[in-house]
Design goal:
With 323 residues, the chain is an alpha/beta fold. It contains 14 helices and ten strands. Bound molecules: adenine (ADE) and zinc ion.
Protein backbone atom coordinates (compact mmCIF):
# COMPACT_ATOMS: atom_id res chain seq x y z
CA UNK A 1 0.00 0.00 0.00
CA UNK A 2 1.70 3.26 -1.07
CA UNK A 3 1.92 6.16 1.35
CA UNK A 4 -0.31 9.04 0.29
CA UNK A 5 -0.39 12.83 0.54
CA UNK A 6 -3.21 15.22 -0.20
CA UNK A 7 -3.03 18.76 -1.56
CA UNK A 8 -6.66 19.37 -2.59
CA UNK A 9 -9.37 18.92 0.01
CA UNK A 10 -11.91 21.45 1.31
CA UNK A 11 -12.03 21.15 5.07
CA UNK A 12 -15.77 21.86 5.36
CA UNK A 13 -16.29 19.26 2.62
CA UNK A 14 -14.42 16.64 4.63
CA UNK A 15 -17.05 16.38 7.36
CA UNK A 16 -18.76 13.02 6.96
CA UNK A 17 -22.56 12.65 7.21
CA UNK A 18 -22.34 11.10 10.68
CA UNK A 19 -20.44 14.12 12.02
CA UNK A 20 -22.77 16.55 10.23
CA UNK A 21 -25.81 14.80 11.76
CA UNK A 22 -24.21 15.14 15.21
CA UNK A 23 -23.62 18.86 14.56
CA UNK A 24 -27.22 19.27 13.31
CA UNK A 25 -28.50 17.73 16.56
CA UNK A 26 -26.24 20.04 18.56
CA UNK A 27 -27.66 23.14 16.84
CA UNK A 28 -31.26 21.96 16.38
CA UNK A 29 -31.12 21.84 12.57
CA UNK A 30 -32.91 19.34 10.34
CA UNK A 31 -30.39 17.53 8.12
CA UNK A 32 -32.97 15.44 6.24
CA UNK A 33 -33.08 17.52 3.01
CA UNK A 34 -29.32 17.05 2.62
CA UNK A 35 -28.53 13.71 4.25
CA UNK A 36 -30.56 10.56 3.64
CA UNK A 37 -29.68 6.99 4.64
CA UNK A 38 -26.33 8.15 5.94
CA UNK A 39 -25.35 9.75 2.64
CA UNK A 40 -25.25 13.32 1.33
CA UNK A 41 -27.96 14.04 -1.22
CA UNK A 42 -27.41 16.32 -4.21
CA UNK A 43 -27.81 15.98 -7.96
CA UNK A 44 -25.68 18.65 -9.65
CA UNK A 45 -23.01 21.25 -8.81
CA UNK A 46 -25.58 23.76 -7.56
CA UNK A 47 -27.29 21.32 -5.19
CA UNK A 48 -23.90 19.95 -4.15
CA UNK A 49 -22.92 23.50 -3.09
CA UNK A 50 -26.22 23.85 -1.21
CA UNK A 51 -25.59 20.65 0.76
CA UNK A 52 -22.00 21.78 1.36
CA UNK A 53 -23.10 25.20 2.64
CA UNK A 54 -25.72 23.58 4.89
CA UNK A 55 -23.11 21.32 6.48
CA UNK A 56 -20.50 24.09 6.76
CA UNK A 57 -22.98 26.24 8.68
CA UNK A 58 -23.14 23.58 11.41
CA UNK A 59 -19.52 24.19 12.44
CA UNK A 60 -19.77 27.26 14.62
CA UNK A 61 -17.32 27.15 17.50
CA UNK A 62 -13.58 26.82 17.73
CA UNK A 63 -13.94 23.35 19.18
CA UNK A 64 -16.27 22.30 16.30
CA UNK A 65 -13.55 23.24 13.81
CA UNK A 66 -10.68 21.81 15.84
CA UNK A 67 -12.50 18.49 16.08
CA UNK A 68 -13.29 18.52 12.36
CA UNK A 69 -9.61 18.79 11.33
CA UNK A 70 -8.44 16.46 14.09
CA UNK A 71 -11.00 13.85 13.00
CA UNK A 72 -10.25 14.21 9.27
CA UNK A 73 -6.45 14.24 9.49
CA UNK A 74 -6.43 11.37 11.98
CA UNK A 75 -8.55 9.23 9.65
CA UNK A 76 -6.31 10.15 6.69
CA UNK A 77 -3.18 9.16 8.65
CA UNK A 78 -4.74 5.83 9.65
CA UNK A 79 -5.26 5.26 5.92
CA UNK A 80 -1.57 5.86 5.10
CA UNK A 81 -1.35 9.63 4.54
CA UNK A 82 1.74 11.50 5.71
CA UNK A 83 0.69 14.98 4.58
CA UNK A 84 -2.58 16.91 4.30
CA UNK A 85 -3.13 20.38 2.94
CA UNK A 86 -6.68 21.60 3.43
CA UNK A 87 -8.53 24.48 1.83
CA UNK A 88 -10.05 26.75 4.44
CA UNK A 89 -12.82 29.26 3.85
CA UNK A 90 -12.95 32.35 6.10
CA UNK A 91 -16.24 33.27 4.39
CA UNK A 92 -17.90 30.07 5.56
CA UNK A 93 -16.56 30.65 9.09
CA UNK A 94 -17.88 34.19 9.15
CA UNK A 95 -21.28 33.03 7.93
CA UNK A 96 -21.31 30.48 10.76
CA UNK A 97 -20.51 33.25 13.26
CA UNK A 98 -16.79 32.81 13.88
CA UNK A 99 -14.01 35.26 13.07
CA UNK A 100 -11.53 34.11 10.40
CA UNK A 101 -8.69 34.30 12.94
CA UNK A 102 -10.50 32.17 15.55
CA UNK A 103 -11.48 29.70 12.80
CA UNK A 104 -7.91 29.43 11.51
CA UNK A 105 -6.45 29.04 14.99
CA UNK A 106 -8.98 26.29 15.71
CA UNK A 107 -8.23 24.40 12.50
CA UNK A 108 -4.53 24.69 13.32
CA UNK A 109 -5.17 23.31 16.81
CA UNK A 110 -6.92 20.28 15.25
CA UNK A 111 -3.94 19.76 12.93
CA UNK A 112 -1.51 19.79 15.83
CA UNK A 113 -3.66 17.30 17.76
CA UNK A 114 -3.72 14.99 14.72
CA UNK A 115 0.04 15.36 14.25
CA UNK A 116 0.67 14.52 17.91
CA UNK A 117 -1.46 11.39 17.61
CA UNK A 118 -0.37 10.10 14.19
CA UNK A 119 2.61 12.06 12.83
CA UNK A 120 0.62 13.50 9.89
CA UNK A 121 1.84 16.93 8.81
CA UNK A 122 -0.88 19.49 8.02
CA UNK A 123 -1.04 22.91 6.34
CA UNK A 124 -3.82 25.33 5.38
CA UNK A 125 -4.57 27.07 2.11
CA UNK A 126 -6.92 30.00 2.68
CA UNK A 127 -9.43 30.22 -0.16
CA UNK A 128 -11.80 32.78 -1.52
CA UNK A 129 -15.07 31.60 -3.03
CA UNK A 130 -15.34 32.84 -6.61
CA UNK A 131 -19.13 33.12 -6.68
CA UNK A 132 -19.05 35.29 -3.53
CA UNK A 133 -17.41 37.97 -5.70
CA UNK A 134 -14.13 39.82 -6.20
CA UNK A 135 -14.38 41.82 -2.95
CA UNK A 136 -14.85 38.69 -0.86
CA UNK A 137 -11.91 36.96 -2.55
CA UNK A 138 -9.67 40.00 -1.96
CA UNK A 139 -10.76 40.08 1.68
CA UNK A 140 -9.81 36.39 1.99
CA UNK A 141 -6.40 37.19 0.44
CA UNK A 142 -5.85 40.08 2.83
CA UNK A 143 -6.72 37.82 5.72
CA UNK A 144 -4.37 35.10 4.47
CA UNK A 145 -1.58 37.64 4.10
CA UNK A 146 -1.90 39.08 7.58
CA UNK A 147 -3.10 36.17 9.74
CA UNK A 148 0.40 35.09 10.65
CA UNK A 149 -0.56 31.50 11.41
CA UNK A 150 2.47 29.29 10.81
CA UNK A 151 0.38 26.54 9.21
CA UNK A 152 -1.22 28.90 6.66
CA UNK A 153 1.10 28.53 3.69
CA UNK A 154 -1.08 29.02 0.63
CA UNK A 155 -3.89 30.94 -0.99
CA UNK A 156 -6.42 29.70 -3.52
CA UNK A 157 -9.86 30.16 -4.98
CA UNK A 158 -12.70 27.65 -5.29
CA UNK A 159 -16.38 28.02 -6.00
CA UNK A 160 -18.10 28.36 -9.34
CA UNK A 161 -15.44 29.08 -11.96
CA UNK A 162 -18.14 30.01 -14.47
CA UNK A 163 -18.77 33.21 -12.50
CA UNK A 164 -16.81 36.43 -12.95
CA UNK A 165 -13.80 37.31 -15.13
CA UNK A 166 -10.50 35.83 -14.05
CA UNK A 167 -8.71 39.17 -14.66
CA UNK A 168 -10.76 40.68 -11.85
CA UNK A 169 -9.08 38.38 -9.33
CA UNK A 170 -5.51 39.40 -10.16
CA UNK A 171 -5.24 41.80 -7.22
CA UNK A 172 -6.30 39.13 -4.69
CA UNK A 173 -3.61 36.78 -5.94
CA UNK A 174 -0.99 39.54 -5.94
CA UNK A 175 -1.74 40.25 -2.29
CA UNK A 176 -1.26 36.57 -1.45
CA UNK A 177 1.89 36.18 -3.56
CA UNK A 178 3.47 39.28 -2.04
CA UNK A 179 2.88 37.73 1.39
CA UNK A 180 4.94 34.71 0.31
CA UNK A 181 2.02 32.29 0.08
CA UNK A 182 1.88 29.40 -2.39
CA UNK A 183 -0.73 29.88 -5.11
CA UNK A 184 -3.33 27.51 -6.52
CA UNK A 185 -6.65 28.12 -8.23
CA UNK A 186 -9.61 25.96 -9.28
CA UNK A 187 -10.00 25.95 -13.07
CA UNK A 188 -10.86 23.43 -15.76
CA UNK A 189 -13.53 21.65 -13.73
CA UNK A 190 -16.78 23.32 -14.83
CA UNK A 191 -14.98 25.71 -17.13
CA UNK A 192 -13.29 24.44 -20.28
CA UNK A 193 -9.62 24.63 -21.31
CA UNK A 194 -9.91 28.42 -21.73
CA UNK A 195 -10.55 28.70 -18.01
CA UNK A 196 -7.27 26.90 -17.27
CA UNK A 197 -5.34 29.04 -19.77
CA UNK A 198 -6.85 32.23 -18.31
CA UNK A 199 -5.94 31.21 -14.77
CA UNK A 200 -2.34 30.45 -15.80
CA UNK A 201 -2.00 33.68 -17.80
CA UNK A 202 -3.45 36.01 -15.20
CA UNK A 203 -2.91 34.44 -11.77
CA UNK A 204 0.38 32.57 -12.36
CA UNK A 205 -0.25 29.69 -9.95
CA UNK A 206 2.28 26.90 -9.41
CA UNK A 207 -0.66 24.48 -9.11
CA UNK A 208 -4.09 24.25 -10.61
CA UNK A 209 -7.13 22.82 -8.84
CA UNK A 210 -8.48 20.09 -11.14
CA UNK A 211 -7.26 21.57 -14.45
CA UNK A 212 -8.37 18.36 -16.13
CA UNK A 213 -10.33 20.01 -18.93
CA UNK A 214 -6.99 21.23 -20.27
CA UNK A 215 -7.20 17.92 -22.11
CA UNK A 216 -9.50 19.70 -24.62
CA UNK A 217 -6.47 21.58 -25.98
CA UNK A 218 -3.23 19.66 -26.76
CA UNK A 219 -1.18 22.91 -26.88
CA UNK A 220 -2.31 23.74 -23.36
CA UNK A 221 -1.42 20.24 -22.15
CA UNK A 222 2.06 20.73 -23.63
CA UNK A 223 2.31 24.10 -21.88
CA UNK A 224 1.31 22.63 -18.50
CA UNK A 225 3.92 19.90 -18.91
CA UNK A 226 6.63 22.33 -20.06
CA UNK A 227 5.97 24.82 -17.24
CA UNK A 228 5.77 22.08 -14.61
CA UNK A 229 2.36 23.22 -13.36
CA UNK A 230 1.09 20.70 -10.83
CA UNK A 231 -2.44 19.42 -11.40
CA UNK A 232 -4.54 18.68 -8.33
CA UNK A 233 -6.65 15.92 -9.89
CA UNK A 234 -9.71 14.55 -8.12
CA UNK A 235 -11.06 11.79 -10.38
CA UNK A 236 -13.79 10.54 -8.00
CA UNK A 237 -15.12 14.09 -7.63
CA UNK A 238 -15.07 14.60 -11.41
CA UNK A 239 -17.01 11.40 -12.07
CA UNK A 240 -19.56 12.10 -9.31
CA UNK A 241 -20.11 15.65 -10.61
CA UNK A 242 -20.26 14.31 -14.18
CA UNK A 243 -17.35 16.42 -15.44
CA UNK A 244 -16.43 13.19 -17.28
CA UNK A 245 -18.64 10.32 -18.14
CA UNK A 246 -16.93 7.46 -16.26
CA UNK A 247 -13.35 6.48 -15.44
CA UNK A 248 -12.48 5.25 -18.96
CA UNK A 249 -13.06 8.84 -20.15
CA UNK A 250 -11.08 10.54 -17.37
CA UNK A 251 -7.95 12.28 -18.71
CA UNK A 252 -5.66 11.45 -15.76
CA UNK A 253 -3.69 8.75 -17.65
CA UNK A 254 -3.41 10.94 -20.78
CA UNK A 255 -2.16 13.92 -18.76
CA UNK A 256 0.39 11.72 -17.00
CA UNK A 257 1.54 10.27 -20.34
CA UNK A 258 1.89 13.81 -21.72
CA UNK A 259 4.37 14.61 -18.95
CA UNK A 260 2.07 16.68 -16.74
CA UNK A 261 2.68 16.62 -12.99
CA UNK A 262 -0.54 14.99 -11.81
CA UNK A 263 -1.59 14.29 -8.22
CA UNK A 264 -4.51 12.40 -6.64
CA UNK A 265 -6.91 14.07 -4.22
CA UNK A 266 -10.37 13.66 -2.71
CA UNK A 267 -11.82 17.24 -2.98
CA UNK A 268 -14.90 16.82 -0.71
CA UNK A 269 -14.62 13.12 0.05
CA UNK A 270 -17.94 12.07 1.63
CA UNK A 271 -19.96 14.07 -0.93
CA UNK A 272 -18.38 11.97 -3.66
CA UNK A 273 -18.44 8.68 -1.74
CA UNK A 274 -14.67 8.58 -1.72
CA UNK A 275 -11.55 8.89 0.45
CA UNK A 276 -7.96 9.70 -0.46
CA UNK A 277 -7.11 5.98 -0.18
CA UNK A 278 -10.02 5.19 -2.48
CA UNK A 279 -8.68 7.66 -5.08
CA UNK A 280 -5.38 5.74 -5.09
CA UNK A 281 -7.27 2.43 -5.32
CA UNK A 282 -9.37 3.78 -8.20
CA UNK A 283 -6.22 4.91 -10.02
CA UNK A 284 -4.78 1.40 -9.64
CA UNK A 285 -8.01 -0.18 -10.87
CA UNK A 286 -9.07 2.14 -13.67
CA UNK A 287 -5.79 3.71 -14.78
CA UNK A 288 -3.63 0.60 -14.32
CA UNK A 289 -1.20 2.35 -11.97
CA UNK A 290 1.38 0.24 -10.16
CA UNK A 291 2.39 0.80 -6.55
CA UNK A 292 5.59 2.43 -7.83
CA UNK A 293 3.61 4.81 -10.06
CA UNK A 294 1.30 5.69 -7.16
CA UNK A 295 4.27 6.40 -4.90
CA UNK A 296 5.56 8.73 -7.63
CA UNK A 297 2.21 10.56 -7.45
CA UNK A 298 2.66 11.00 -3.69
CA UNK A 299 6.19 12.31 -4.36
CA UNK A 300 4.78 14.86 -6.82
CA UNK A 301 2.30 16.04 -4.17
CA UNK A 302 5.04 16.46 -1.59
CA UNK A 303 7.32 18.24 -4.06
CA UNK A 304 4.45 20.63 -4.84
CA UNK A 305 3.35 21.07 -1.23
CA UNK A 306 3.36 24.54 0.27
CA UNK A 307 5.90 23.73 2.98
CA UNK A 308 9.38 24.86 4.00
CA UNK A 309 12.44 22.99 2.75
CA UNK A 310 13.07 21.13 5.99
CA UNK A 311 9.51 19.77 6.21
CA UNK A 312 9.58 18.74 2.54
CA UNK A 313 12.86 16.87 3.04
CA UNK A 314 11.49 15.09 6.10
CA UNK A 315 8.34 14.05 4.19
CA UNK A 316 10.35 12.84 1.20
CA UNK A 317 12.60 10.87 3.55
CA UNK A 318 9.52 9.18 5.06
CA UNK A 319 8.36 8.27 1.58
CA UNK A 320 11.74 6.86 0.55
CA UNK A 321 12.08 4.86 3.77
CA UNK A 322 8.79 3.09 3.10
CA UNK A 323 9.81 2.01 -0.41
N1 LIG B 1 -15.75 23.98 -3.24
C1 LIG B 1 -15.89 22.79 -2.68
N2 LIG B 1 -15.81 21.82 -3.60
C2 LIG B 1 -15.60 22.42 -4.79
C3 LIG B 1 -15.40 21.96 -6.12
N3 LIG B 1 -15.43 20.66 -6.43
N4 LIG B 1 -15.24 22.88 -7.08
C4 LIG B 1 -15.22 24.18 -6.78
N5 LIG B 1 -15.38 24.65 -5.55
C5 LIG B 1 -15.56 23.79 -4.56
ZN1 LIG C 1 -11.89 21.63 -4.91
Amino acid sequence: MPLTAEIHCHVEGAADPELVIRQARKYGADPSPFIQNGSFVWHDFTTFLQAYDFAADLFRTEEDYARLTEHYLTSLARDGAIYSEVFTSPDHARRAGLSPQAYTNALGEGMIRARDKTGIEGRMIVTGVRHFGVEAVEAAARFAARCGHPLVTGFGMGGDERMGDIEDFVRAFEIAREAGLGITVHAGEFGGWESVAGALDHLKPSRIGHGVRAIENPDLVRRIAAEGIVMECCPGSNIALKVFDGFPNHPFPALLAAGCKVTLNSDDPPYFWTTLRNEYDLAAKHFGMSEKALTAVTRTSIEAAFVDRKTRSALLARLEKKR
